[in-house]
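Risk register update: the risk of archive-format incompatibility is retired. Evidence:
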Amino acid sequence: MVAIIKTGNSIHNIFNYNENKVKQEVAACIGEGNYPADADQLSTTMKLNRLLKQASLNENVKRNSVHISLNFDPSESNLTKEKLMNIANTYMEQIGFGKQPYLVYQHHDAGHPHIHIISIKIREDGSRIDTQNIGRNQSETARKTIEKSFGLTAAEGREKKQNQKLQPISMGKIEYGKTETKKAIANVLTGVLNSYRYSSLPELNAVLQQYNVYADRGSGNSRIFQKKGLVYRILDREGKPIGIPIKASDFYNKPTLKFLEERFVANKTNKLSDRNRIKNAIDLAFTGKGTSLPDLIKVLKKDGIHIVLRKNTEGLIYGITYVDHSTQCVFNGSTLGKQYSAKEIQERCELSTAGKQKISDSLRDKLQKSESPKTNQENKKTSFDPVLSGNYEKLFEKMTEILTQSEQSTAYIPKQLKGKRKKKKRRGQSDN
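Archived output:
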């Protein structure tokens, strides 16, 4: 089970989002918590007013709504409504929302079973529930307990652990025309915006582009740019925008430029301690044999770090961004330091591969000198050039053998280094 918690400043938005799903017949309200009647006996107005009334007890709390999604493994599609409600009630109790009014919706618009729970952060006495680090602390504890109690597939200890972390609500690469554009983009935004720590629009796009989504401000002289607007677009396989762009304000969670700018500021202070992991991984990749840029991309990818290269219209690289899926941090190259910028990384790759070629040439010459003399005809037939043939393993095995050989016979010692032989005294002979 994968749990995602989001807070917002509009109860109407999260309520209407789920109710609209019900109207579209892709969701159903299957239960409630702390309401005066069962969900099927409540009108739409009664559902909403219960939340609004309690939220009005403390108007100083701006982000007063809570939107939770509990996502289950595709193999668990046979979960009954009763079991889903038991899971929802247990989860809300364990994260500290057991006494809050909440509504539970079962959605059928994704490739895996999942439910949405909406609630508020204001208690009956008007006090506020602190949700800082609730996802890392209370939610993680509740998730593990529920997985054991209800026999659910664990989110940890599986080969897909990293994939689940990256795709908590059926994200994956969007293919234009296969799913509704707005719904597909919304799924990606839900999984990325509040999970990853990015501090600029290019850093955010470095993550979004992996799912064929792009946040676009438009050109500098465009109306949308001047009005500080933002649209989200789907990209094709070549990374080019396709289809109709959708305004940020059209999504229920309002991921506008203003919202993102607030995230940029908050994320700058939260991710300073995660830089060393990427820097160390890059430096380690340059040790040993020569490392080209494709080699570096492949090595870092195995460590959960994705490199995104920014190119101009001529195909020249002018920027580099690192996306660490393990820590969910995103860094522009220059943010890590000058030597991790696009220009320096390319130079380091060139020096690394040039050094490897220089060593290879030197070793080839030494190999040829170390071979016993042969006739020109024999050399043509039997000579072996590991460098030209690309057989580097045999080259380096031979290199090790040559470099560790003694240049002189161990039986020979120069006269200057020989000590004088001490005469053996005869028995009974004195020093005098």
